[in-house]
Design a protein that fits this description.
It is a single chain. By secondary structure, the chain is mainly α. The chain is 63% helix and 0% strand. The chain has four helices and no strands. It has helices at 8-23, 28-35, 39-48, 83-131. Helix 1 (8-23) crosses helix 2 (28-35). The N and C termini lie far apart (75 Å).
Length: 132
């Protein structure tokens, strides 16, 4: 069975209705069911279309940062934010991701060292102390 194609105007109307449903506290599954679409279609539309306009968005949707307040209707960035701000945000996120990866690596190495000490047992540790 081939899926139904929705026009840009119809998608914009359904996304506006989805925003209203989300504001009333409906979850994504209930919203998709009320709109007669799948949850994946709802996510794709939210990602692909700006809820303010009837035409597709050329920029990918940005997830809200912890210091921003997210709205129930879509991404928290303003449509007037330019590519420079988005590029800066991407760089900041990449730097934070790198820092967190290093932190996780350090913690894993420390955990492995502690597990090795536990595996050796008390007799092996006493031998190592005497050998020094």
């Amino acid at each position: 069975m081939v899926g139904r194609r929705h026009g840009n105007h119809e998608i914009a109307e359904k996304l506006a209705e989805a925003g209203e449903l989300a504001a009333r506290g409906k979850n994504q599954h209930e919203i998709a069911k009320a709109l007669g679409i799948s949850v994946m279609t709802y996510h794709r539309w939210r990602k692909q279309y700006d809820t303010e306009r009837d035409e597709p968005s050329t920029e990918p949707a940005r997830s809200p940062r912890s210091d921003e307040t997210a709205t129930a209707t879509g991404p928290s960035y303003s449509p007037s934010s330019g590519p420079r701000e988005r590029t800066r945000d991407v760089r900041e996120l990449e730097q934070e991701n790198l820092r967190l990866r290093r932190l996780v690596t350090d913690l894993l190495l420390e955990k492995m060292a502690l597990e090795d000490e536990l595996d050796r047992g008390p007799r092996d540790r006493a031998r190592q102390v005497r050998a020094r």
